[in-house]
Design goal:
- The chain is built from seven helices and eight strands, in the order ααβββαβαββαβαβα.
- The protein is α/β, with parallel strands linked by helices and 285 residues long.
- α3 packs across α7.
- The protein has one domain: Zn peptidases (Aminopeptidase), CATH 3.40.630.
- One of its GO terms (molecular function) is metalloexopeptidase activity.
- One of its GO terms (biological process) is proteolysis.
- It holds the Pfam family Peptidase_M28.
């Protein structure tokens, strides 16, 4: 089974990264091809395509739902667009591959859950729309808020495939962090904001129980560089519990927002452990 997970993740990242022109906001056709691939992999799940217009162009969030008769939701999201002309293997084909594999787990095991699961592939997370109300996750979160949806937690998968065992391969936003976290980039991070420590620690615990990957969490002010650098930020805006699950992006990965963010730089064995851990969160949160 583990071998299948690794192969699945590799195939998903490969399929997204080979799309040309690159799947940025300008190349809507490429984003549409990425969306078509994502939909094709969400077998036996209820699919909703949430479309909206920006500058006369149509963009789409892809929502795959399981156990829809339940009211309370767990949302797992990842953005499928890239920054500029980059392949975006880690950022963020890795996260998309993660939600696709969780969808396969749900199809295979058909778990009996007390909550609904929504797996969401978001558009327009990257610049120039990052931090604006044009982000796909903002559109989604605002819609849920208007519908008075009950959300247990939103998990944002933001770069989950780059790891290093080299000393000093892990950097931090503030120097004193090195006293609390490893200097090797061989772990996965769970990032929450101040006031949401309980849910952040619970997610950390469940990833640890479901996988062999080392896991560390932090609750930090949103002004700390990187803490709100993904789709979870928009769920915070509407008062929902949300965390980012990440390999820490530019604090570790030198290929961040560069042409060198290619599939060959990812560690699919460790990435598969991350995904197994996240699936355990989905089951037990």
């Amino acid at each position: 089974m583990d071998g299948n997970i690794t192969r699945n993740l590799y195939t998903d990242v490969e399929q997204l990264c080979k799309i040309r022109p690159f799947r940025n906001f300008y190349n809507v056709g490429s984003l549409d091809r990425a969306a078509e691939y994502i939909i094709s992999q969400f077998e036996d799940l209820e699919i909703t395509v949430q479309t909206y217009n920006v500058n006369s162009r149509k963009y789409s969030n892809i929502i795959a739902s399981y156990n829809t008769e339940k009211e309370e939701r767990v949302i797992v999201g990842a953005h499928y667009d890239v920054a500029g002309d980059t392949p975006g293997a880690d950022d963020n084909a890795s996260g998309v591959a993660g939600i696709l594999q969780i969808g396969r787990f749900l199809k295979l095991y058909r778990p009996k859950l007390k909550h609904r699961v929504d797996l969401v592939a978001y558009t327009l997370e990257e610049p120039p729309f990052f931090g604006t109300d044009k982000m796909g996750s903002y559109i989604h979160a605002k819609t849920l808020y208007k519908e008075k949806a009950k959300i247990k937690v939103m998990l944002s998968l933001e770069m989950i495939g780059y790891f290093s065992d080299e000393p000093d391969s892990q950097q931090f936003p503030l120097p004193f962090f090195k006293f609390f976290y490893p200097d090797k980039g061989n772990f996965i991070g769970v990032v929450g904001k101040m006031g949401q420590k309980k849910i952040t620690k619970r997610v950390e615990e469940l990833i640890k129980k479901g996988s062999s990957i080392p896991v560390y969490s932090i609750n930090a002010p949103v002004f700390l560089l990187g803490v709100d650098f993904s789709d979870h930020r928009n769920f915070w805006k509407f008062g929902y519990n949300a965390v980012m699950i990440t390999d820490t992006a530019f604090y570790r990965n030198p290929n961040y927002h560069r042409r060198t963010d290619t599939i060959g730089t990812l560690d699919f064995e460790r990435m598969s452990e991350v995904v197994k851990g996240i699936y355990n969160v989905v089951l037990n949160i």
